[in-house]
Amino acid sequence: MSKTLGVWDRPLPWLRDPAVLAELERLGYQRVWLGASPPADLSPVEPMLAASTSLAVATGIVNVWDGPPDPAAYARVTSAHPGRFLLGVGVGHPSMVGARYTKPYDRLASYLDGLDEGGVPESGRVLAALGPRVLRLARDRAAGAHPYLTTPEHTAQAREILGAGKLLVPEQKVVLSTDPGQAREIARSQLAMYLTLSNYTNNWLRLGFTQADLEDGGSDRLVDALVAWGDEEAIRGRIAEHWDAGADQVALQVLNEDKMGVLRALAPTTAGASF
């Protein structure tokens, strides 16, 4: 598989702007990943695909706790825009789901059963996967995995579990700034919520971070590992680390206010030989 770049963000107005989508397409980004648990009916997806020509769209991710799968929505979108949509699904967080959150692995497997019954092919879906068990599920029952808030070291571990031929698309947060204080302040403001969520903190502990790294907004070591910051060369270096570790695509989530300015600076069509 070729090494490509995507864009990850919530379906905010800027990301739904047809002019923005057209520009992302021209800049060489291959796919937009919609975060913030887009609905299973895929209503935000269709206008984005209609407003672009070749740009692909994926959900990152539909939360399996929000309701039953909607194979009809998948069929509708893929029929209208063949080859341009990828269904990303995954489990939510215990603190956000409450009493409904029981045996998340079983819930995810059951959701996949529903997709199977509705005719959604394994090749058309990926799983949000951090730990080994769900990565193996992504290997066995999906096209691959879409890990969120991880490191190149995790990408290497995920590739080993997935094996060759499976899609691996880690999300990577970036801050285009050479000021360490400013960059880390922006990064910590985005990481604060995740430091309270056990699925992420457990994954970081598996990667070799310690409980001390999780305290006081996250250590510099943790922040720097999770959020790529610096000049364009430094950020491209982190992207290349993911590629070298086995990623097929890296989905960039820009934390700067000027999102498009950063995406223009890092675009495949402007990177030249830097990658």
TrEMBL record:
Gene3D superfamilies: Luciferase-like domain. One of its GO terms (molecular function) is oxidoreductase activity. Its EC number is 1.-.-.-. The keyword Amino-acid biosynthesis does not apply. InterPro entries: F420-G6PD/mer, Lucif-like_OxRdatse_MSMEG_4141, Luciferase-like_sf. It is an enzyme of class 1 (oxidoreductase). Keywords: Oxidoreductase. NCBIfam families: F420_MSMEG_4141. This is LLM class F420-dependent oxidoreductase. It comes from Actinophytocola glycyrrhizae.
